[in-house]
Amino acid sequence: MSSTITEGARPDDARRHNRGAVLRRLHLDGPCTRAVLATEFGLNRSTIKAVVDGLADTGLVSERLPSRRSGAGRPSLLVVPNPQAALVLATDIRVDRVAMALFGLGGEILGRLSWRLRPGSASPRDVITRVLESAVVLASELSLPVVAAGVSIPGVVRQSDGLVREAPHLRWVDVPLGEQLSAGLQMPVTVANDAELGALAELTRGVARGVSDVVFVAGDIGVGGGVISSGKAMRGAGGYLGELGHMVVRPDGLECHCGCQGCWETEVGAAALCRALGLPLAIGRGELHAELRELADDPPTALARLSDYVGWLGLGLVNVVNLLAPQVVVLGDLFAALPEPALQVVATRVRERSVVSRAVGHTLVVRSALGRDAHLIGAAEAAFSPVLDSAAG
Ligand SMILES: [Zn+2]
Predict the structure, then answer these.
(1) Buried/exposed code over 44-65 (b: 16+ C-beta within 10 A; e: otherwise)
(2) CATH architecture classification, 86-197+374-391
(3) pTM for the full model?
(4) What is the 17 CA–ligand 1 centroid distance (Å)?
(5) CA 34 to centroid of ligand 1, rounded, Å
(6) Quick one: which of 149, 172, 213, 276 could link to 89 by a disulfide (CB 3.0–4.6 Å)?
(7) Which CATH fold would you assign to the domain 207-369?
(8) How far is the CA of 171 from the centre of ligand 1 (A)?
């Protein structure tokens, strides 16, 4: 994503801004030549040379010949972000699993590990201790300094300090996760809701690149949403916006752990999907995905078995689209694993029943292509953002 270059700013500010914008572009969109940078940013070649030289002097980028030559003549050098120049640690805490990865500048994963959790019985202290130990293991494998960390959590998170107010499926309440990890890791730590980070991942490295209004809706044990409006994360008071799963869609429906009845989550979360498919609620995630893959090969059966489920998914999305007016809705986790015919029904329902979808020229409903890594990637990008700003200075 290119950022506009400010005209008329003081030379130091303009240089810092240009370096930041070019570094962010290289980090998110990958290597390119100086000529491409000049065109994209509307700057002359000598200004781009000064920007690239400045970034190269601090080791953030280097220039090298492309691995594949195209055409005759001397190939242009590519400006390449150096992965080792800035490493961030990303952690995705889920109800049944914790995954961690080290990301280099440019977004490459340089090391990763994960472990399982027993749902509902993972104490904050045990998880924090293991995250801190695992961070040391990951960093020591690379012998490179890590500069910041991002953490994804399925819960309601206070943006200012990463306090987890409620993570109901983990049974965590008022856990100072940001503070404790920051003290233990000795680096800035950004903690955010998993769906908010999923939205960031889709915007920066997923199917919503270049889109300014996006809603990411992920169905796992719970259902959450992340909202990007006019290119920026919508957060609401305290940063708590996005509890789409607790939108009441069926007043006479099942009781939800939040205290309401008939929340969207009770109709489209993992438990509802298992009920729709006649599977035991305790079924493993691998088996559930295998069942969905099998259904994908048999559209009539898929539509018959998922008819009610798809109806509730579509109904909730119509509300979401009417309320938030996204250009694109990205479906993550279990929703992304639904058979194509089921997804088509949902997309059609949104198109036909949402007045906002009709007004904006049809909201697209697409599945995430980032799979289980969406939260990790979002956590990494949340950690990278201030690093990119300061690295360019
Ligand atoms: Zn609820």
Answers:
(1) eeebbeebbebbeeeebbbeee
(2) 2-Layer Sandwich (3.30)
(3) 0.92
(4) 44
(5) 51
(6) 149
(7) Nucleotidyltransferase; domain 5 (3.30.420)
(8) 14
